[in-house]
Protein: LysM peptidoglycan-binding domain-containing protein
Amino acid sequence: MEQQFKKSASSRIGRFWPVLALPLALLKPIVGQAQQLPPPDSAGTASPQLPVLGDSLRVQLEYKLDSLAAVPLAPSVVDSVRLEWLRTPPTLRDLVGDRIGCFETDAPHAFNGSVMAYVTLFTARNRSYMQRVLEREQFYFPIFEKYLAQYNLPIDLKYLAVVESALIPTAKSPVGATGLWQFMGPTANDLRLKRDEWLDERMAPEKATEAACKHLRYLYGVFHDWELVLAAYNWGAGNVQRVMKRTGKKNFWELYPNMPAETRNYVPTFTAIMYSMKYAREHNLHSDKLKYQYAETLDTLGLRGQAFDLRRLSRACGYADSSFLTRYNPELRRAGLPAGYRPYVVRFPAAARPHLEGVDRATLLGFCQPAAALPQPLQPLPPRLAGVEPFPTQQYLAATAGPRAEAAAAAPRFRRVSHTVKRGETLAAVAEKFEVSQAKLRRWNELPKGRALKPGRKLVVFVPLPTEAVPTKASIETAAVTAAPVPASVRPVANDEDAAARRELAAANAREAARLTALAEQEKRQAARLAMLQQRQESLRKAAAAKEAVAARTRQAAEEKAAAQAEAVADKEANVTANVTAAAERTRKAAAEAANDADNAPAENPATYVVRKGDNLTKIAREYDLTITQITAWNQLDSENVIPGQKLLLHAPAEKGVDAEAPHKAAKVAAAPRDTKPVAKAGSNRAPAEKPSAKTHLVQPGDTLYNISRRFKVSVAELRRLNNLASDEVKLGQKLLLPQG
Structure:
């Protein structure tokens, strides 16, 4: 029994052995791996949680992550945006994405890794930048919101000014973009923002904001997508349109790889700044140490051409800092305006009103004039001591012809003259008239070389003024001796003061004499120049008179020639009239002879005769005892040819005699050339046409065939027949024949 029990127990143990071996085989690698985990640090922090025993999938996953972290990555494959994305805790990334996704705005607010990287930059790594922006937020955002609402644009576009200039109105980029909205010069000109050496309206908050709203509205009308609008605002609408045309893509994120780096980062930066400023308190960006600026009620002072100094107005308002008011007038490039400048409105806080109580506008403007325009105090005269030379001031040097006076006198002075170019006047003539060189004229008026002057153009000429001769010391002494000789009875000079006074008086007299001499010489030169101009004008007048005489002689010769030609034409007309009259007389005689022959014709002849085949006028006249002339006259035949079937009269017509018709026709023929009066043009050798030319009409704008027929009292069918028209359409400038008479 015992052996059987042992045998049965051993067989039972052998049967359960594979079942117990499987957990032991799985437990061995897990224990080995647990022994390789790092021990807890000295601070007592707990080590990472061990994987659950028996979970083979979890063990394999943890092992792969540890092995990958131990292998260093190559620097060439590291993406900074993705690295920042991986460094961000998952909870913060999800929270930022949820917050941005909940924005109810039309402005771009897509969330991705690029946006998260800039959110981290503005809220963690570069917090001071965002805090400086938050200080100026309440000062400028009310202005932005007013104009964005006025132009019906998304209010959140106000954060675009933060991207551009960080709310600094005088910001200027390296390429020249200036102001809160960073306008370039050409764009500012298109938007009517004025720029000169005194004023730049790109730095004016209200005017620049209104111009930016107009520009954004225009860009949205082109692209109809706010992300593309922001890209075009940064890169230019033309560049964005070219990339869209080249790639065929219509979305910013599809065009993302084809844009420059600055434009690629522009939209993510805008979204990150919008998030950072909306959730600044959640990220602890606000602080009691920040110097917040708030919008204030402002007063204005209108200027209309008066010289103005903003620093003096700051002192009048009671501010210790003389440049305090520049933050309310940032568009001024200098701290003032000159006299004669265009109207301008100065802004200052209404809180300074108590300092200006009781001061009227004229007094305030007088106080705010620049220091250079104010009356200067007189320079104190140094005391004169016996035996001591006075300090050489500017007045003393000028009075004694010192080196400064000589330098000032040697400087050339000019007078500005405006000259209007006349017809036929050249640059050389103008230069000779004012005694200057042609090169100077071109430089003063920016004239291109080799191009003629246009009549009526205004030219600026700088004519040198006569310089006053500065007398030398020797001439002064000579003039002094000549002007005031000292008699022998006069006592010598008692002291140096009187001697200096005498020298000053002599020098003044010498300078006055030199000035008068220079003026006399200038008058002589001007008189000589005037005489030369008068002589030149006289010669031009004589040349014009001679030219007019030649033209008169030419006109007289042409008139005589025209009269001769008209006389020849009249003689020719008289000859033609005489010939026509003679022909009419011959026709009348032939008609009378035919009538007499008709009276002698036999009565038995029939009234008409029908021409048969083979007949001719000679045969018919012989058969009926008539003459060919009678048959031709009675039937009004142009020739002796007849055709079969033609009816011929063998008697004179009963109603209208030949003797009455022939003279009437002859009279018409004789009167025709008298009614037609040919016009002979002076200087033409062509004889006038005997027959009048066909009458034509040139089609004018708005003409139709019906209007033309009504105007000339002709039917439309007649006009179409004369001009071979297939329809009633006529073209502008087409010539149409009209029936004569």
Summary: Confidence is low (pLDDT under 50) at residues 1-9, 26-71, 473-494, 656-692. The radius of gyration is 57 Å. The longest helix spans residues 496-599. DSSP finds 27 helices and ten strands in the chain.
